[in-house]
Amino acid sequence: MEEALKEARKAASIGEVPIGAVIVKDNEIIGRGYNRREIDKDPTAHAEMIAIKEASKNLGGWRLIGCSMYVTVEPCPMCAGAIMLSRIDNLIIGTMDPKGGACGSIINIPEDERYNHITKVTRDVLKEECSNTMKEFFRNLRKNKKKI
């Protein structure tokens, strides 16, 4: 999760919502990502999507079997679907998102047994650090009266 937090800090440094993700296979990071929606002008440029694309490229295929994703904030429905569809085995979440999360807060896509692949979810890993990263970012935005 420390590596995912490093990615989140990269996002914050360019004015993006500080969410970071890394994908690990056999104790090696094979994919990294941080939010880039504003910079890329792309609504799909979420940390998780970027990490999935990089991991798929590095493995030479879309099936990320045997992989774990660490993400600082609970994934949205788009990212939760991509995690499930890419066959990631484990999802480790830093802090939950009660307003937009799709891994246990509002709905739970990765662990829904109606799908053909189940991703095991672990929640609240380095929760305070992940939560504080988000709180600090939005506190600074309000202080500087910027909208994102």
From TrEMBL:
Q: What are the protein's GO molecular function terms? A: tRNA-specific adenosine-34 deaminase activity; zinc ion binding
Is tRNA processing one of the keywords UniProt gives this record?
A: yes
Which PROSITE patterns is this protein grouped with? CYT_DCMP_DEAMINASES_1, CYT_DCMP_DEAMINASES_2
Tell me the GO BP annotations in alphabetical order.
tRNA wobble adenosine to inosine editing
Reactions catalysed, as given in the entry: adenosine(34) in tRNA + H2O + H(+) = inosine(34) in tRNA + NH4(+)
Q: Where is the CMP/dCMP-type deaminase domain?
A: 1-105
Q: Identify the domain of life.
A: Bacteria
List the active site: E48
Which terms are listed as keywords in the entry?
Hydrolase, Metal-binding, tRNA processing, Zinc
Q: Supply the Pfam families for this chain.
A: MafB19-deam
Gene3D superfamilies found in the cross-reference section: Cytidine Deaminase, domain 2
Which cofactors does the annotated protein need, by name?
A: Zn(2+)
InterPro entries named among the record's database cross-references: APOBEC/CMP_deaminase_Zn-bd, CMP_dCMP_dom, Cytidine_deaminase-like, MafB19-deam, tRNA_aden_deaminase
Q: What does the record say about how the cofactor binds? A: Binds 1 zinc ion per subunit.
What Enzyme Commission number(s) appear in the record? 3.5.4.33
The entry's Zn(2+)-binding residues are: H46, C76, C79
Q: Which NCBIfam families match?
A: PRK10860.1
Q: How does it assemble?
A: Homodimer.
Entry's family note: Belongs to the cytidine and deoxycytidylate deaminase family. ADAT2 subfamily.
Sum up the protein's function in the record's words. Catalyzes the deamination of adenosine to inosine at the wobble position 34 of tRNA(Arg2).
For this entry, the protein name equals tRNA-specific adenosine deaminase
Could you tell me which species this protein originates from? Anaeromicrobium sediminis
